[in-house]
């Protein structure tokens, strides 16, 4: 699910601020962006984030605030080289034109920090800031997860209601199907003056009716709904998104089988309603870790 967290930790005379953003994704993808002064900690920042998260596209950004201004040290060799290259380009394109020194402002890394921060101190500050931001993000995701869980429970209740209606209609639908098949076959046999044995005809009709029986599908669907609700009540922090996704796939399969077997308008209507709710549940499950 999506989330945002912001936290800071003391660092020297100022502070280090961590900002984290996540969007839903099946696998974990961490991208860290750090200022030049502490760019050596990029991999460390990604590692700290991976230790706490399991999935999602994660963007973590660190910035330094409140530190004393550092004018830096001019890299004279780099400045001379850049200015010389500009002069050569001037001589080639516009001989005699002025080459202002202000153009050097666009040269990257012309000034280097006058001092290198203590990496151990920076590492500790980065860890504290990142973990604080993740805690803030977790709190936000937890609130969103509670809302999603409530919505999913309501949809599970609708699926149970649809299943109960199918069960209530099942026996009558099967008898009606058997009656229609028997009437149809009897009519065809009378038209063709066939000598088929009546008992064999009844056996064939019973076999067709048995193949249209949806008892097994209803039982499995009820079991999947029970497991789905149990997964929703899992311990906080325990991932259940993949289990929910698997159960939804199985329920969609059972609903498709019900729709194929049921030769009844009422049951077909309930199957359509079930598929609608299952699709909504599937969309919500994509936001669950």
Automatic annotation (TrEMBL):
<protein>
    <recommendedName>
        <fullName>Protein YicC</fullName>
    </recommendedName>
</protein>
<keyword id="KW-0378">Hydrolase</keyword>
<keyword id="KW-0540">Nuclease</keyword>
<dbReference type="Pfam" id="PF03755">
    <property type="entry name" value="YicC-like_N"/>
</dbReference>
<feature type="domain" description="Endoribonuclease YicC-like C-terminal">
    <location>
        <begin position="169"/>
        <end position="289"/>
    </location>
</feature>
<dbReference type="Pfam" id="PF08340">
    <property type="entry name" value="YicC-like_C"/>
</dbReference>
<dbReference type="InterPro" id="IPR005229">
    <property type="entry name" value="YicC/YloC-like"/>
</dbReference>
<dbReference type="InterPro" id="IPR013551">
    <property type="entry name" value="YicC-like_C"/>
</dbReference>
<comment type="similarity">
    <text>Belongs to the YicC/YloC family.</text>
</comment>
<dbReference type="InterPro" id="IPR013527">
    <property type="entry name" value="YicC-like_N"/>
</dbReference>
<dbReference type="GO" id="GO:0004521">
    <property type="term" value="F:RNA endonuclease activity"/>
</dbReference>
<feature type="domain" description="Endoribonuclease YicC-like N-terminal">
    <location>
        <begin position="1"/>
        <end position="148"/>
    </location>
</feature>
<keyword id="KW-0255">Endonuclease</keyword>
<dbReference type="GO" id="GO:0016787">
    <property type="term" value="F:hydrolase activity"/>
</dbReference>
